[in-house]
Amino acid sequence: MRTLSHAVLFCTFLSATAVAQTNNRAAALPQKPADTARNVPAIKCVDRDTAAACKSLKELVDARDKGLLAQVLGTPEVRRHISYVCLRPNADFFSVVNFTIPEPRVYGRKLDTDEEIARYADDSVSTNASMREMMERSRKAEENAEFMDFSDPPAVSQYTKDKWYQDHSKELVYSPGLVLDFTYQDGINMGPVEDWGEWSMAASSRNGEQSDPPTWFLGGYAWIERFNSQHGDQSAKDDDPEHGHISVDMSSIRVHYKYGNPSGDMVDYTMQINRLTGRFVESFKYSNSSDRDSGTCMIFK
Length: 301
Description:
With 301 residues, the chain is an alpha+beta fold. Helices cover 29% and strands 29% of the residues.
């Protein structure tokens, strides 16, 4: 599993000089599309410890790598996108942890299916039976979506999904989403680690008085991990250690998963990021030892 602005100014100066020297013969040349200049970061590599990782990041940014820029900046039509670009010291390796926080207006209360179905308990009435069946299908769809589990047989048991569904508060409202951690080794995109789950906020925050109310995210597999720690591994069989276990609260981000290294050892990996300062710590636990790295992520909003 698991600097640009100076260059633009310089090119503009050269173009202007060429136009003057050729009596405006270059005036008809096509202009550079404005979208690629939209908030594209100017990467400056000044830290010796992260020079290798920064060089790879800068090469991708200068080349306008669409995948990387989408991870870092989001897309023009999407607001509230946040990314953390974390350069690992003394290695040609960096991570891009990124997510989009849903707009407050799209959050909603989780259906209390048992409560709702009670209104249509009389199965002798066809309308009630149809409504009951529709709500049960809606619940199953929500459960599956949070775990991205549409496999046959399901990867996560119904017991765990039911427990997850019951773990919702009427004081909160929710919106589905995901958090992604893309890793780059030697300038190559190694793919994402991800966790699908729910963004949450206080139900009272939906009234629009705050444009950016406090929100937090708990991925489906991060929830399983928490549930097992609190209930004696009752859902241990449903957990996938190599799947991303990701949570985001108001102050920090946590990414946890396991992966195999070239020696065949399984590495228990955890990254924690301070959302305010960008400071990060990576922890690596091996069968007979452990290691850690730390640094500061670039933050893009």
